[in-house]
């Protein structure tokens, strides 16, 4: 994982998490491309971006779906 605000990450398409609520809280956006996966706080789109390898992101999603991260 690394933190970045590089221009290449600024040009990707961001998607809000389906678990984010509509009142402005708990908003996470993900930019899922063919390479690393970027994650940011939608309330601070110009703030830091965390990037994860595809393998690390897939393991995280599998753990969440499997109930391992409650």
From TrEMBL:
Pfam family, one: DUF397
Classification via InterPro entries: DUF397
Chain ranges of the DUF397 domain: 13-65
Protein name: DUF397 domain-containing protein
Naturally occurring in which organism (per UniProt): Streptantibioticus cattleyicolor (strain ATCC 35852 / DSM 46488 / JCM 4925 / NBRC 14057 / NRRL 8057)
Taxonomic path: Bacteria, Bacillati, Actinomycetota, Actinomycetes, Kitasatosporales
